[in-house]
Amino acid sequence: KTSASNIVGFEVDEHNTATEFNLLDSINPRRPKTGTATCRHMQFGSRENRHFVTVPTLISFILFFLCLGNNFHLAFCFSTPVPTKIPCHRQDSSNYLDILASDAPLLDVRAPAEYIKGSLPKAHNIPLLNDKHRALIGTCYKEQGQEAAISLGQDVIRGKYKDGLVQSWKDHIAQYPNGYLFCARGGLRSHIVQKWVQEATGVKYPLIIGGYKAMRSSLLLDLEISLKSLPIVLISGGTCSGKTLALKRMSRHVDLEGLANHRGSAFGAIAQDDQPAQQDFENSIMIELRKHRDSSSPVFMEDEGNMIGRRTLPVSMHALMNDFPLIILETPLQERIDICIQEYIQDPFQAFLGAGGQREYDANTNADDINSNEEAHARIRNKGLDAVGQINKKLQRKLGGTCNEGFDILGEIEKAFDLFKSTNASNVSGFRKPIQLLLKDYYDPMYDYQMSRKQKGEVLFCGSMEEIVKWAADYRVLS
After folding, report:
1. How far is CA 450 from CA 83, 357, 447, 456, in A?
2. CB 253, CB 299: distance < 8 Å
3. Which member of 41, 120, 244, 365 has the greatest number of CB atoms within 10 A?
4. Which residues pair with 106 in a beta bridge?
């Protein structure tokens, strides 16, 4: 096929004169070969370096190409070489709130101890310095200054250890090319990582200016704006009334218990693993609220106390929650018992069994399956009894240890777990009576007392699960 240099059409000299190539000259040899004053021109380029192409030349070229159809490739050839594609380097950023609200992936290069204390939802920790290194270099910095600390850091992080770190960062960046990296204050650590990554990849991976502390401060300030500007509506109701189930059916909501990894009541830890760090919990709440600022539609949250498990709501948030309007979920007692058994016994047991779900005992059941069932039963039993144990003293004081003609709450729950295990997790009837007592004689009076003590906002609606879900879908905030 014809080469590009024979297909294309013009060349520009230092006097801005356009000279045509031989291919077009051979088609129309009578056309002027330079851009004279008698020809019409089209200009391109900057004001200081304008290039001209004659209009007749362009017309001839277009007609020629149309005649060729698919037999030739179209190409333009200029007097200067076409530059190769250069990677687009994104800039370091201090646009904290937009980055966090967009769920941009983050590379946290702080030490593990810093990360565990508090980080951000989309952060992955690949530290420049481990905890031991950070302590040594930090002490050196305080006693001998920055230069000595940098020198010590270079001695500590070198050779194969450094190569392994750089490879880990490269792998992360390859997986998350649109992310950012950060350290505590956007200082030496993040700049070193950025430099080493750029040397290894040719890509300048942007860092967060000001680091974690700047992002955290920005979120705390933004929380006040979110709480005062968002039309927040709280869902209230007794324990195990299905508030979380209703909440998740609403298009705009913030699941505080989900973010805390705890269901709120004494049974709240049964179905969950460890709770996040306090700062992680707060950061997640603030980011979720920020995401909802793009609309004036109401945002629904559960009516929570100051603490969810071992995690505390931000102080300013808990104070303002007393003023938010409410909707109250009214669920019959027997339905609440069903919800409690499902959410705190059956669902966690299935989760403990793993993705394979319930396994039946039969002649083909192997030892691993038996061990898995045994472990799941032991785990749900221990967690359930531990949860009741958390309120045992209160039960002793409130219910006298026994009630309803000698009915022992703790003893009956133990029997219920025995029945649950002996029937291969199929019979949950033993839980109904003790759970009913817990709800009716302990949780409901406590809920009524707490509601009477709080200065709550306006009650907008009361109803069943289906009724409040429908009401929420239709509700609009009056401007």
Report:
1. 71, 39, 5, 10
2. yes
3. 120
4. 123, 180
Give the max Cα distance, the chain. Answer: 117
Host H or E run for residue 396: helix 392-399
Q: How far is CA 119 from the centre of its chain?
A: 12
Q: Distance between terminal CA atoms of the chain?
A: 69
The residue among 171, 196, 186 whose CA lies nearest residue 92 is 186
φ, ψ at 48 (rounded to 5°)? -80, -20
Give the C-alpha distances (Å, rounded to integers) separating 291 from 100, 243, 244, 450: 9, 22, 20, 31
pLDDT in tens, 393-442: 666 666 554 454 456 788 889 999 999 999 999 999 999 998 998 898 88
State the catalytic residues: 183
Q: Read off the tokens for 109.
A: 């290069």
The residues near 129 (Cβ < 8 Å, ≥ 6 apart) are: 111, 137, 153, 156, 157, 189
- DSSP of 169-213: HHHHHHH-TT-EEE-SSSSHHHHHHHHHHHHHHS----BBTTHHH
Q: What is the amino acid identity at position 86?
A: I
What is the pTM assigned to this prediction?
0.74
**CB-based burial of residue 19 (10 Å sphere; 0-12 exposed, 13-18 middle, 19+ buried)?**
middle
378 to 30, 151, 194, 390: CA distances (angstroms): 96, 53, 48, 18
